[in-house]
């Protein structure tokens, strides 16, 4: 059992996870993660994941971790080289998130879906400046009862809280349209969603790998009282996905200032991996997974 006492231990703990995952992916796919940089891909990804865990807001702040903890790594490279390595290895993060979910969260047949907004800028400034490679648009957040300009994130988590999939859409795209691609890798699952995922597109999502979609009915739908009462125990378990979203917001997921969609996506996936790593650590050490606001157990700090 690995005990994390300080951030030096955290770097080592995350590096072991990432390095083992890359080796397993290499064996399964036959692909070799090669680089001409002095830093290995596992080292670059470890710095990024730990940087997100430490609530670093910018890529420059993440790079400064390399200098601050330089004794843990093979070499210290320039900031421009580090940025290039982050961009080059960004696609690996999706494989890592899928690897974590398949390895540590594959025993339950229930998972949870929710969407949440990414405001890019104020609505009155929507025609000026950044539009995230043309993907941003005006949308409505029903829970906050307000309009915003930006993107939506749609996250799928298991019962442990480990993120299993993450997708982005323009803010004006209805949540239900993302159900089918979110469940692409899931099979025979009971997927618990909120009322935002009610729609005829559910039929297409159900057809994907024989998954069952469970949502509450609206008050204007026939039989809503009996239906909502029957599924109430399942809906109470949605606290898991809501807790994960609150952790992501704690990691500044709503205030990232990326100009590129691909950079924003990579940083968001790195935040999900950071949360998943923390959950695995809590499970291995017998701590509560998600009941405290701090991602890791308070004894860690």
- The rounded Rg comes to 20 Å
> Based on DSSP secondary structure assignment, what is the total number of beta strands?
6
Going by CATH, the architecture of the largest domain would be: 2-Layer Sandwich
The helix/strand series, from N terminus to C terminus, equals: HHHHHEEEEHEHEHHHH
The CATH H-level homologous superfamily of the largest domain: Ribonuclease H-like superfamily/Ribonuclease H
Give descriptors for this structure.
2 domains, 42% helix, six-stranded mixed sheet, alpha/beta, Nucleotidyltransferase, domain 5, 6 strands, 11 helices, 15% strand
Structural account:
The chain has eleven helices and six strands. The chain has 301 residues and is an alpha/beta fold. Strands 1, 2, 3, 4, 5 and 6 form a six-stranded mixed β-sheet that branches. β3 and β4 form a beta hairpin. The two termini are 18 Å apart. The C terminus is likely disordered.
Brief summary:
The protein folds into two domains: 7-89, no CATH class; 108-255, 2-Layer Sandwich (Nucleotidyltransferase, domain 5).
Secondary structure elements and pairings:
Blueprint: H1 7-29, H2 41-53, H3 59-68, H4 79-88, H5 92-104, E1 110-121, E2 137-141, E3 146-158, E4 163-170, H6 179-182, E5 190-192, H7 202-207, E6 212-214, H8 224-230, H9 232-236, H10 239-250, H11 261-284
Helix pairs in contact: 1-2, 1-5, 2-3, 2-11, 5-11
């Amino acid at each position: 059992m690995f005990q994390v006492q300080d951030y030096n231990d955290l770097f080592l703990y995350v590096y072991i996870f990432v390095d083992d995952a890359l080796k397993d992916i290499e064996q399964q796919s036959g692909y070799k993660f090669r680089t001409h940089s002095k830093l290995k891909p596992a080292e670059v990804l470890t710095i990024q994941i730990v940087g997100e865990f430490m609530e670093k807001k910018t890529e420059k702040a993440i790079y400064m971790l390399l200098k601050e903890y330089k004794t843990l790594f093979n070499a210290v490279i320039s900031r421009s080289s580090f940025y290039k390595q982050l961009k080059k290895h960004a696609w690996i993060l999706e494989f890592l998130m899928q690897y974590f979910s398949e390895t540590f969260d594959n025993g339950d047949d229930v998972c949870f879906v929710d969407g949440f907004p990414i405001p890019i800028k104020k609505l009155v400034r929507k025609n000026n400046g950044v539009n995230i490679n043309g993907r941003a648009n005006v949308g409505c957040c029903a829970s906050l009862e307000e309009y915003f300009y930006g993107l939506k994130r749609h996250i799928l988590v298991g019962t442990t809280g480990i993120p299993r999939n993450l997708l982005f859409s323009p803010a004006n795209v209805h949540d239900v349209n993302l159900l089918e691609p979110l469940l692409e890798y899931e099979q025979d699952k009971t997927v618990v969603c909120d009322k935002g995922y009610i729609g005829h597109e559910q039929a297409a999502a159900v057809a994907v790998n024989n998954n069952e979609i469970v949502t509450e009915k609206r008050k204007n739908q026939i039989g809503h009282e009996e239906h909502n009462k029957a599924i109430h125990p399942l809906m109470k378990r949605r606290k898991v996905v809501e807790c994960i979203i609150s952790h992501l917001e704690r990691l500044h997921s709503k205030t990232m200032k990326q100009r590129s969609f691909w950079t924003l996506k990579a940083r968001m996936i790195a935040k999900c991996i950071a949360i998943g790593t923390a959950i695995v650590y809590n499970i291995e050490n017998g701590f509560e997974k998600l009941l405290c606001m701090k991602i890791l157990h308070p004894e860690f700090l």
